[in-house]
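Just scan my protein:

——
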Amino acid sequence: MAQESVQRRFSRFIGSLGSMTYAERLNILNADSLEVCRLKFDPVMIYCSVHGLNAFDFSDFFNTSNSSTRGHVFKLSKHFTVLTAVLLVLLIVLLMCGTV
């Protein structure tokens, strides 16, 4: 992704890290790649949406399961279109930037 390449390029300019691999630079900086950050952030966003802890109405993106099988009441299935998926990504980016 474009953002990952920006992080990869920017980390080369920090001190004497330019000759190291991207993984080594992230390790020294004690940082995660943007892909790992997204993998960590997605479940947190879903949890917050389900429990009403953020501005998203989770019913815009997910349906709760009405099945009577064992488990819990928070079984989710997605039901969004491409447009709502784009809006979700935009809202997540805005939240990560602290503008919302």
Observations:
- The helical segments are 2-12, 22-28, 34-50, 82-97.
- The longest helix spans residues 34-50.
- DSSP finds four helices and two strands in the chain.
- The longest strand covers residues 62-64.
